[in-house]
What we know:
Largest sheet: 8 strands, parallel
Family: Belongs to the vitamin-B12 independent methionine synthase family.
CATH topology of the domain at 416-761: TIM Barrel
Cofactor: Zn(2+)
Keywords: Amino-acid biosynthesis, Metal-binding, Methionine biosynthesis, Methyltransferase, Repeat, Transferase, Zinc
GO biological process, one term: methylation
GO molecular function: 5-methyltetrahydropteroyltriglutamate-homocysteine S-methyltransferase activity; zinc ion binding
Amino acid sequence: MAIATNLGFPRIGGKRELKWLLEKYWSGKIGAEALLEGAAAVREQNWQWQAEAGITQIPVGDFSLYDHVLDWAIRVGGVPAAYQNGKLVSHLDRYFAMARGTQKGADLPAMEMTKWFNTNYHYIVPEWSADQAFHLDAAPFLEEITAAQAVSPDARPVVLGPVSLLLLGKLKGASESPLVLLDRLLPVYQELLAKLNEAGCAWVQWDEPVLAWDLDEATRTALKHSLAHLSDHFGNLKLVLTSYFESLRENLPLAFELPVAAVHLDLVAEPGQLEEALQHVRAEQSLSLGLVDGRNVWRTDLNRAVAFAETAAKAVGSERVLIGPSCSLLHSPVDLEAETAIDAEVKSWLAFSRQKLAEIATIVRAVNEGRDAVANALHQNAEAIHTRRTSRRTHNPVVRDRAAAVLPEHRRRGTEYGTRQSSQKKRLKLPLLPTTTIGSFPQTSQVRQARSQFRKGELTDAEYQRYLEQETETCIRRQEALGLDVLVHGEFERNDMVEYFGEQLEGFVVSKAGWVQSYGSRCVKPPILFGDVQRTEPMTVPMAKYAQSLTDRPVKGMLTGPVTILCWSFVRDDQPRRETCEQIALAIRDETTDLEAAGIGVIQIDEPALREGLPLRKGDQPDYLAWAVGAFRLASSGVRDETQIHTHMCYCEFNEILPSIACLDADVISIETSRSQMELLDGFGEFDYPNEIGPGVYDIHSPRVPSTQEMVQLLTKGIDVIPVERLWVNPDCGLKTRAWPEVEASLKAMVEAASEVRTQLA
């Protein structure tokens, strides 16, 4: 019989219970015991939901208080020396110090954070040292397995494999690959396997997501070596080798050569790999079929998915078929039934995590009992798929005609950067090392309450507008008092940098409860992009114009770029992404030119997702970069020379796409660099990045307030890499998640640092 499996479930809880628990713990409102008890309740509810849906092999170990990669670094003893600090008196103190920094007891910055492959989930980057010693620290993980087995005897531990764990981290102070540590690490995994055998586990999900990459020979050898070394210790365990987000491609023969009991195929990323897999699967191996999209919210075409499952079952026998999602459901909202805000027609096209579990169960039942056993479910699904395909709401001829009329000159500024820079300096009259922020300021409980009251009809349009204007004026005055050179309006009218635009652009619907985890307690609610996109009226102009009227200093107009709106939405999958991105770019172009007409001289078009959207395989990257860069240029090139275009990027590795970043031709780019101590800036220097750049000098994802001297040191490093006349001073990212006291203290230190460095230079 085919088996229903799952690779992971959202951690946040149906009502974001984990978020509220974490934030209460961090603020001192609850203690460690209440946090752990509450988290355990969320975790057990996840198991119950999966078991009730018919999932046989429910995942265990996919839950995390902050990040699963950080969890695995700690489980193998990978705690950097700085955090082996006697002032961190508990396991949780150490854990959260590594994740988000601390000034409690020990003054420590957070560890580096970056994107999980090509998703908007952020993981904590492990720090390995040349003399790294490993040891097993997995007691809580083993306790979770015992608890999960009480819910489902076939609960399947999720293990991040040793090769991926090492390569997702950085070997500090050395140029070698972290794989030099592999033989030191393998005894820890050997001990872990013994513990899993003792726990009575039957299957283990062995995640090696680096199989989705182009692998060099050293990595291929490491994968072979690690599993060959460990295979004598499998005992009764059966390993399902798991990767996701991409086809295995040339790594497919390698995956089936390894001593594993099953290989997972992401058939959403590439359905065609099943045919090749059937040629390589060994007689004793099973196939794990990822047939339900774990990253998006559209219903699965069940008839098509069942056909794939039937093909596999016919070839190898249904008892050797495992069926599940393409990847962990971490990237999908929890439950569509909780959704009351989405238009009924669009809602009929959707499936969130709990609905995806039901889809998996339906596919398994169709394979095991025949299609007649699930005929009604298949019929209803086929109707929804057909309705979506044929709906007039998904196609707008006006939008398509406009996109077809785009010419090459629409993607170019009027002159080269050097000429523009001269015009902008005359207009803006900024000092050396100009200071600014990335855009948002604290979204306080009062701001959120006012927004809620407005949506409930408890505040009129006029009352809410007056409130927003008061908050904006207060924000402008605070920035003036701090001495910032280029101001922002604070974005108090915006709930999220993408959702805000999704609420105003045609072609989107916005959910009420469609939350997913971005990192830690930070949850986002991506809008759902179902149809052709166009702007019907200005979206940001009135607030930007009002803010500029309050001050003589430049105020930035704040926009989200087309690639980021695309990547941070649940995007339609019925047409090429490049076409959708171009439609968004035209809408942002309209907003950009309207901001300029309203007197805004500095416009920031954020593209933090540019690197995130990069395909995992190098051969696919040039095409993506061409249309992604083209979309940004289409959005930004309708303005005059004297209008300064900024962009912002954060929490990713930029170096491999620096030529494309330069091709954006933004006048100023701000980037996140503080967690890496300006390490990311080195690539810009080596590349000789031609335009202006603002390397972030403090980490806004940590509550820690940095000192002036720390920022002076980072700025000094920046000047060693980038000519000072092209250097800006700013935080790493927006400030909406922080509180005003720490924001003002940090910005005060930042402005003082810029002033001190100016004095040194003079």
